[in-house]
Amino acid sequence: MPGLVQSRIEYFPALSPIDKIRHAFVGRIPGINVVSDKTEALRRLDAVHREYRREIGVGDWPLVAAQQVHGDKIAVIDRAMGCKHEFAGCDGLITNRNRIALGIHVADCCAVYIVDPKTPAIGLVHSGKKGTELSIVSKAIREMSAKFGSDPGDLIVQLSPCIRPPHYEVDFAAAIVEQCREQGVKQIYDSTVCTACDLERYYSYRAEKGKTGRMLALLALT
What we know:
There is one protein chain. The chain has helices at 2-8, 38-55, 129-133, 136-148, 172-182; strands at 9-10, 21-26, 63-66, 74-77, 84-87, 92-95, 101-106, 110-116, 121-127, 156-159, 187-190, 215-221. By secondary structure, the chain is α/β, with parallel strands linked by helices. A six-stranded mixed sheet has the order 1-2-12-7-3-5. A six-stranded mixed sheet has the order 4-6-9-8-10-11.
């Protein structure tokens, strides 16, 4: 298992030097049949995803997730949580609490990591075509400013692999970057990787016609 875990975790160079956080992006897991609906696919992936959380040192921390309904609602985690919690109707999570792992599942949509190393505070947002049209990342940045006093100029934003043209008709990653700039974010990093281009490393809802697994984005304050 350790070798498998190491081979499927990605770390982003822009986030790795920040000693106040732990992060990861977990890609396709070989050997697990995920040709099913989302609920069943996540059930089949759960044991391995738990192993990945242990690998990055957050295995014993509460895991907070969003239901992900392609909306713009942001959940604010400002208190201690149980071992696992999912916020209904939400697509974004922000917190200034230590030792709580934020989790977002994606399979073409973008997982957007937002880190304020000064306050400190963090956010993790699910933004695909619909969420980007609703400017959910902009809303998360504004919420971090309002709830935690984060200065957008201090934020570091990282975009995960996601589907991109020509495999998709909309370049929502470019729109996310522009939205961040409009909010005053100066440090914006995009992986530039297309999920539909590499089905050995990533799941793609579009390329696999909806019958596929989910990548897992993780972000936590230490």
